[in-house]
Model the fold of this input.
Amino acid sequence: MAYGVKKNTNLIKAQKIIQELMVTLNTDLEVSKSMLSMYDYMNRRLIEANIKNDSEIIDEVETLMTEFRDTWK
Done:
């Protein structure tokens, strides 16, 4: 599999994971609304990274997701 195709596939997988996190949020809670905004931002950035083939955006989203994960640990 070519590098570009593999990267595209992995970015789409990451987008699907974020989208699943978004739809499973209980938006009755205030914290969930903030999380939804963050997930939406990360998802849009991944789409942009995929379109522009921009690894810096991928790094940005990875950093955000890692910080988000570490907060919940």
Q: What stands out?
A: The two ends are 35 Å apart (CA to CA). Helices lie at 3-23, 30-52, 55-72. The mean pLDDT is 91.
